[in-house]
Amino acid sequence: MTTRTSWADLAANSAAENVGVGSSSASNGAVGSTSGAGRPVYVPPHLRNRPPSAEPPAPTSSGLTSSNDRPGYGGSRWTAPRNDYNNRSGHGGSGGRLGGWGGRSGGWSRGKDREVNPFGNDDDAEEAFSEQESTGINFDAYEDIPVETTGDNVPPPVNTFAEIDLGEVVNLNIRRCKYVKPTPVQRHAIPISLAGRDLMACAQTGSGKTAAFCFPIISGIMRGQVPQRPLRGARIVYPLALILSPTRELSMQIHEEARKFSYQTGVKVVVAYGGAPINQQLRELERGVDILVATPGRLVDLLERARVSLQMIRYLALDEADRMLDMGFEPQIRKIVEQMDMPPPGVRQTMLFSATFPREIQRLASDFLANYIFLAVGRVGSSTDLIVQRVELVHESDKRSHLMDLLHAQRTNGVQGKQALTLVFVETKKGADSLEHWLCMNGFPATAIHGDRTQQEREQALRSFKSGATPILVATDVAARGLDIPHVAHVVNFDLPNDIDDYVHRIGRTGRAGKTGLATAFFNDNNASLARSLADLMQEANQEVPAWLTRYAARSFGGRNRRPGGGRFGGRDFRRESSFNRGGSDYYGGGNSAGGYGVGYGAGIASAWD
Ligand SMILES: Nc1ncnc2c1ncn2[C@@H]1O[C@H](COP(=O)(O)OP(=O)(O)OP(=O)(O)O)[C@@H](O)[C@H]1O
What we know:
The protein is an alpha/beta fold. The chain is built from 21 helices and 17 strands. A nine-stranded mixed sheet has the order 6-7-5-8-9-4-10-3-17. Strands 11-16-15-12-14-13 form a six-stranded parallel sheet, with helices on both faces. The radius of gyration is 24 Å and the shape is globular. It starts with 6 loop residues before the first helix and ends with a helix. Adenosine-5'-triphosphate binds next to α7.
């Protein structure tokens, strides 16, 4: 993730760059169009390539898309040939290098609304192609991963991006990202979503879930019928897709990723999150939005101010879906999804993604889905084998000196010399500040991120960590999920979390995209309730479980963290477990198991959960 376009940076640069709405009068097309009053008029992706004289579609008052308006193989949208959106790109037009919208007259590349290249200045796609073989993901690491799908008529997986047929412009962006072939979750999830199906997908941390939900959304918007947004007040915006995530930094990261994937497609991605000035986000929204990436709190604010309508939403994605539906967020999510004007399940398409999906959350989540497919890549809630997990018995009062020893050892071994980064998780915000201070006092450049810091401080901390200026980041759980920070070599659980799923997400900040990583946990009596699930998880991931941890595990009584089956992680599609419980057959039918572990997780597991 880069925070280049964050409000903190923009605030710093505000004197140099006035991004005010009124200043876009130089633009005359797409998101940069202006009304007679000088206010930008949103032009949907499908019209942005039309000559300036083309009339926009007559607005309708209904605005709602119907269920058969959803994308699908062989669906009506294909009657507009897929080359359509490539041809619209203005090959040979002024400035249009490789398709997309860049070369159109009146396109949103003009003037103030020029689409910033999210790949930085390195826009040399050919260079990216030549590098891709050496920098791509280590796919061997995923070769044997078991995959299971349940649901009706599951579309078959693909092996290559070419098979998925996302269109030339998106394919070029995929190559710019140096993605050579789809990861397992992408191989399965993208065809399912492109077929218009709802999806609950569980795949290990760092395995490419972001692209798995972004590609179908972008492709769907590009192929879809021209959206006819209601004229119900000029200042309300009508996104076509909504991606919700639990933290501001994760929303920023998804926004950056989605901008890369949609570069020069004409699909406009906007982010809205708390802690940053809402007016700037409103201005950005008024310039046009197809995909809105947001945190729930800020979105509720925008909805209550009647500045965003969800009436046109065709795609809803919840990243870290289990977190979004746990007690903290569920009321807000229900408000957004069920109590505003969003089309219901079956009309919109819904995608839920996470690395962990407790059964009770699956049950809650099923309220938001229609005839969905459940996809598990690897075992639900498992950690990846790419992470070497160590757990050490450390008395509370010895933790700091123990951490110091670890960091010294890293230095001696030259890891930090190569700018490897260490992420240290603690329980409390106060604890984070205090440990950061102590590390700095002891000659270890550290910074901290937690919920009591201002958004500017949070973004600055992340930037400083990523750049290696402060190669140690002390964090609370605000940094536990989703953040994709290259070169995090070591995750230290200075304080272990209470929930094993939080542990899975925390250690998942290393060992990403086929790379290996190290996770060290400090364990003591305070963590006894986690012993069994931790031992099970480690065993499952072929890690060495210390004898003392096994003894702790034998003494513990399970509770929330107890995993079913004594180390056999189950808890996949809760619908199947229910059917197993009743002794019936798989009433959803269509279950596929690729990889050979799809049997034997039935009745025994269901009764052991919780
Ligand atoms: N097909 C691909 N080839 C190579 N790299 C990829 C591919 N897909 C994704 N990646 C890279 O893998 C990394 C991890 O992806 P991503 O952040 O989407 O993981 P995730 O599954 O969402 O993880 P988490 O559960 O922690 O949120 C990113 O750096 C992403 O750019």
